[in-house]
Design goal:
It comes from Metallosphaera cuprina (strain Ar-4). It holds the Pfam family LDcluster4. This is Rossmann fold nucleotide-binding protein-like protein. With 171 residues, the protein is α/β, with parallel strands linked by helices. It has one domain: 3-Layer(aba) Sandwich (Rossmann fold). The chain is built from six helices and seven strands, in the order βαβαββαβαβαβα. The protein has a seven-stranded parallel sheet. β1, α1 and β2 form a beta-alpha-beta unit. α1 runs parallel beside α6. The protein is globular and about 40 Å long. The mean pLDDT is 97.
Length: 171
């Protein structure tokens, strides 16, 4: 399974960093998914590092201007040549599901794209980021058509366990 992870590009506070690590550890208990990220900075770096520690493959779909950015050798680099918004299409499209661990406009763009592509989207709440507002605005679906599946969780380990249960039959 390939899991696209939409996450904050800024440095996270320690609480959000712990939530991201807890999610990766939880999802890694049932499988070793390919984790798809938009870079190796901010919260995405935390997710990548924990994913590597847990034995998952990591793919970084990079925007233009990051060609010389140093990353661990375990990360597969995809140089898109695109601006960050264009790159978000590749992130949303490449995962079987999309998980949001908290973020701003870029993360919300990827959530909306994956949902409109008919994918299941898992959104972590109480992250201290702008994606927390999605639940109050869209508690069940993002539009009247209900193109994708929208799932909100406050506990990152519970979110990981639910993904394990739904897609792997384990928890």
């Amino acid at each position: 399974m390939q899991i696209s992870v939409a996450a904050l590009s800024d440095e996270p506070d320690p609480g959000l960093e712990q939530k991201a690590r807890a999610f990766v550890r939880s999802i890694s208990k049932c499988s070793k998914p390919v984790i798809i990220l938009g870079g190796y900075w901010g919260l995405m770096r935390v997710v990548a590092d924990e994913s590597i520690l847990q034995g998952n493959k990591v793919v970084a779909i990079l925007p233009e201007g990051t060609e010389h950015f140093i990353m661990p050798n375990e990360i597969i680099r995809v140089e898109t040549g695109c601006d960050p918004r264009c790159r978000s299409v590749f992130i949303a499209r490449s995962g079987d599901i999309l998980v949001s661990l908290g973020g701003e406009a870029g993360t919300m763009t990827e959530i909306l794209m994956a949902y409109s592509m008919g994918k299941a989207v898992y959104v972590l709440r109480d992250t201290g980021t702008s994606t927390d507002k999605l639940y109050s605005a869209f508690p069940e679906k993002l539009d009247s058509r209900g193109l994708g599946e929208l799932n909100y969780f406050e506990d990152p380990e519970r979110m990981g366990a639910e993904i394990c249960r739904k897609y792997y039959g384990t928890s």
